[in-house]
Amino acid sequence: MSTLFPALTGDPSPDRPALRFGERSLGYADLAAVSATVADRVRAVQRVAVWATPTLETAVGVVGVLLVGAAAVPLNPRSGEKELGHILRDSRPEIVLAGPGDELPGALAGIERYDVDVRPGPGGGRVSDDRYDALDPALVVYTSGTTGPPKGAVIPRRALAATLDALADAWQWTGDDVLVHGLPLFHVHGLVLGILGPLRRGGAVRHLGRFTTGGVARELNDGATMLFGVPTMYHRVAEALQDEPALVKGLTAARLLVSGSAALPVHDHERIAAATGRRVIERYGMTETLMNTSVRADGEARAGTVGVPLPGVELRLVAEDGATPITSYDGETVGEVQVRGDNLFTEYLNRPDATAAAFTDDGWFRTGDMAVREGDGYVRIVGRKATDLIKSGGYKIGAGEIENALLEHPGVREAAVTGEPDADLGERIVAWVVASDPQAPPTLDELAEQVARRLAPHKRPRVLRLLDALPRNDMGKILKRALGDHV
């Protein structure tokens, strides 16, 4: 297999910027040297834990691990003791990489620690990773564990290359691009797309450390060309546009704005487009598959959709039996997304049962996501099969489109939709809403009318529950299973 990072092998340019975190930065020549030092240290190791803070040390550590053909296990610094203990017992890393000042929890006390030094020394070695097999593990990324203990998805080197090259095609991504983001680095979005993506292209990344609209404005007005974020970030951007002219200027100048990890509400799409003339594009992926679809840079940025399958990715929707393909794409028929391609993980670590259950006999991965597809191939995700498919009055309804309709109401700041048992309908639709003005929240009748008018009468909520805030994880995704605690 060819190298994952062509710009780091051979004779890297000493003047070409690679990574910047705050005031600290590394060019390609210095990155090659310091990552080679990490690679030498972990050369005989199979799996390496990385204390994945949003820092230069994390980025250098992961690159060093990949250069020497080992597998990096990114650890979320906010993981609870029980979850972290499970991940360490399951992955059995032989060493943990951290920053010199990081305080590690007791669960890591028995594992050898290596502090990543990002200060380039004289000379510096070079490491080429072109001798490793395409199916060799590159990352072990743990799922969120919403249906049980987190599972370690083993992501091969082939999947990294396939996804990043497919995105380069879809987004016209080149070494001239400069990416800005403020995402965590223990997840596919922030680490693979946000750090490894620019490095594979030979471009640069500027990490904000902590996301702020001021930081976005500063970097986009200082030459950054692309912004990656999650809906929570873009919502804050949309809210700030009126009061921050520098933000409007920076977004207007950006080449590409990308949102992922959850659906971006249509209202935020429209506010950003109206103020800047730029459309945010969405893409769809998950830990096990990396990226599956995206709106293309040269395509129509259609709010509410995640675009078309990426080059090399096969995608189909299947009926409720999990096997019968849906062949008529009408934008209404809901089916489960299944995918095949080089972008897929190879297995759940130590879980052959779960791995076998995740794939069909002919190699399609069952994503558990529900979607509809337009006649021109555009995909719209409507929710998760386990939590977002509501069967009401004989209809199969995706919660996601109802949530988007609710968010268009001016009285709704946040919204989630679930189903609950109903003797007549089978399930009734429940709207969980955070009001824009808690003193004057919207009524159920108002919201039901809005949904019925925008979608269809059978998709209107029958129950309204008002909350002060919706429970979310570190990536901004709503934790629907936790909503039951508020009943």
TrEMBL record:
CDD domains, alphabetized: MCS
Domain of life: Bacteria
Coiled-coil spans in chain: none
Alphabetized Pfam families for the sequence: AMP-binding, AMP-binding_C
Domain AMP-binding enzyme C-terminal residues, every copy: 401-477
Domain AMP-dependent synthetase/ligase: 13-349
Family affiliation: Belongs to the ATP-dependent AMP-binding enzyme family.
Classification via PANTHER family: ACYL-COA SYNTHETASE, ACYL-COA SYNTHETASE FAMILY MEMBER 3
Name of this chain's protein: Acyl-CoA synthetase
Provenance organism: Streptomyces broussonetiae
